Structures are given as C-alpha cells and as structure tokens.
Amino acid sequence: MFFRIFCISFLLFQAMSLFGQERVMRVNSHYQAEIKTLTQESKVMRGMSLIEEYVDATRDLHIKLTEMPAPPFQEGRRAQLFMQVMQQYDLDSVWMDGVGNVLGLRKGTVGAKTVCLDAHLDTVFPEGTDVRVRMHGDTLYAPGIGDDTRGLAMLIAVLRVLNDADIHTSDNVLFVASVGEEGLGDLRGVKHIFSEGPQIDSWISIDGGGRASVVTQGLGSYRYRIIFKGSGGHSWGAFGLANPHHALGEAIHLFVQKANRFTTSGDRTSYNIGVISGGTSVNSIPFESSMEIDIRSVNPLRLDSLGGLLEESVYEALEIQNKMRRIGAPLTVEFVQIGNRPSGELPRALPLIQRALATTAYMGKRPVIRRGSTNANIPIAMGIPAVTIGRGGIGGNAHALNEWWLDRDAYKATQGAFLLLLAQSGISG
Hints:
The structure is a single chain. This protein is α+β, with helices and mostly antiparallel strands. It folds into two domains: 2-219 and 343-425, Aminopeptidase (3-Layer(aba) Sandwich); 220-341, Alpha-Beta Plaits. The protein contains twelve helices and 20 strands. The chain has helices at 2-19, 29-39, 42-53, 55-66, 76-86, 149-164, 188-196, 244-263, 300-324, 351-362, 377-381, 411-425; strands at residues 22-24, 93-96, 102-106, 114-120, 134-136, 139-141, 172-178, 202-206, 213-218, 220-229, 233-234, 269-278, 284-285, 288-297, 332-341, 344-345, 368-372, 386-389, 394-396, 404-406. The strands form four sheets. Strands 1, 2, 3, 4, 7, 8, 9, 16, 17 and 18 form a ten-stranded mixed beta sheet that branches. Strand 2 and strand 3 (102-106) form a beta hairpin. Helix 3 packs antiparallel against helix 12 (411-425).
C-alpha cells in the first residue's frame, strides 16, 4: 500500500511540475472566518458528526451503485436506482429530465437562488463489463469504483444529513446525478440542464480524487471523427483503387507535422489520435477507414486553429490519394465534430471559489486551484460560479478494469462538500 501511495504522489508531483496546472492558493481570511463560524452552528456540528456515523451506510450505497452498470449513453438503470434512493429523503420534487439526468429539488426558505450539487452517473465501460466489487483487505476494486460512483454516494450522504440534522437552507438546493460526463457523452447532461432546465446560480460538482484540488478553470476540447470511404476490393485484383487506409495514414502524417509545430509555442494545447478502425482482412482494400481525434487547449481560439489544421490535413490527404488512384471512383471523406467542451476561467475572488478554498483549508488540506475537463466546464464557460471538488479517499487506475479505491478518511471529503454547500446556500434560522 505504501508503494501505491508513493507512486500516486510521485505522478501528481510530475504533473504539477511539468504542466503547471495546479497552484497552491492562499485563503482569504474573511472566508476562513465564515467557514469557522458556520461549523460552530449546533446543527452543522450535528451534521458533521452524522457524516462520520454514516460511513458504513455510504460505503454500502457506493458498492450498490457501482454494481449497477452505467455504460456510455446507457445510464438508465443506474439512474432509476439513484432516483429510488433519492426519493427516500425529504425533497420537494424528484424527476428525470429528457436526457436522463436525475434531479431532486430541496426548496430554500427564501428560494431566490439555486445552488446545485452534482455527480455523474456514467462510466467509460461498455455494456457487459463485469462491475462487481471485489474487496482485498480494505480496498475496493471495480470498474468505476471511484469515477464517479463515489461522488454519487457522497451526494446522497449530504442529502441525508441535511434531513437528519434538520438543516434548512435559504437558497434552493438542486441535487443532480448527471449523464454524459465521460468521453463522447460530451457533457450532454449538463448542457441540457443549462439550456432547458431550471435556473442555476452556482454549481458544485463532485469528481476527481484528491481533497486539495478545486477546479475553477475549464479545459476545453474538440473531438472529431474522420471517415475516408472508397469502393474496396481485392488487394491484387482491384489494385489501383484509392485506398481509405492510405488516405488516413497520409492525413495523420500531415496533421501530426503541422500540429507538432503549432503546439511548440503559445498557450498549452494538446492533440491525440485515440481510435483508428476499418478494414476487413489483410488481403482486402478497405472500403472505410476512420479515426477519432481529441484536441485540448486552455485557449478556445487555439482549439479553432488546431481544428482548422486538422481539416486542412484531411482534405489535403484526400486530394493526394485520389490523384494516385489508377482505377475506380475517388475516395470521399466525412469530417464530423463529435465533441465540444468549452474552455473558461472564473475570477478567484468569486465567493464560491473562496468558500471552496476556505473549506478545503478548514478540512486540513492546502487548497490547490486546478484546470480540468468536468461538468463544471459548462457553467464556467457561461460565467456562472462553478467548482469541481474531489471525492476523497485514495484511488487509482481510473478508466481501467482494475480501478481501485480505498476509504482513507473519505468522510472528510463528504464533510467538505456539506460545508461548501451550506456556505453557498446559507442556513436559515
């Protein structure tokens, strides 16, 4: 276990050193005092104690939710289970919206504003993945055990404590279990909420591991699917046909050369060809060849520029390969954007951000501002106060079949989420 923790710490240090994506922050004394005063409220003290008392129940729900599959675009079974759990508590309304998000509204005594607490339902694992939880000592192993099933369990723990400690907030609180956070889900759940759902005045997502990190900056990304199409045929008998694989290879070569030059200077930008597919056999000219590309940048203008270089490379490759064909029809290409996560950055002086930093410090961690790609990207890009906070514990191998999570003082992350939610929504006397 020591070696595992050492490796994680080393990798986090490397990431911080190489990319400068995290910065330890000083906490405004006004908000430190606010959080300290909040924790002296008798009901809040009771709530903090209950979170510790509910550790076993939270873990049991964590395991139950993990073992309910939630593949990309197929979150319905887990959503139904989560909605059933949410309905056990004192909410004014619970519903599932048009894209499958589960929402629960707890009205405030004033209700002038709405504060959202969110965790996402979906995992990256396809239908049929074995998601049974295995325990080795005190460590839980299962695909999705951390990301973000633990966040869902924390959300329910906070809701339960608000009820059991008889805490009423001034602002409305909206609990959200969202769909489509991972991969090609493209944040569709949160996009739907901010386009067709209730008005949200501030947003708190639970995602990511460590308790120290507070995400206040959205890392934007564009994703593309490129498909070259041709007639296909026998590798000998139809030799001379334009070959979609050759065109794909040409496009990759051209793009990588241009993208490499582009990303050596300016705001940090990355590119990755993550999926390549097509073809039927070694002795067949393929009729189709495709790839999926992810590009990311802290600067939305850089995303546009790099996307332009990709498109330029694809059509240049198409022209080159069509000129080389000796027989048959020319190749065609489909160039489709399949993902768009906006960039953004919020002022650090915002009360929500300062409260997140102050809460993190109160819970014993040196707060770190970080940039990330989470559900908070959408409100951040819209200028709506939003943060993403960690789910606590210790974990590793996210997005892998051997993902693991260890409950090392994880209740403190739940307490931090509880305090932040109360600080932002206000306690009604």
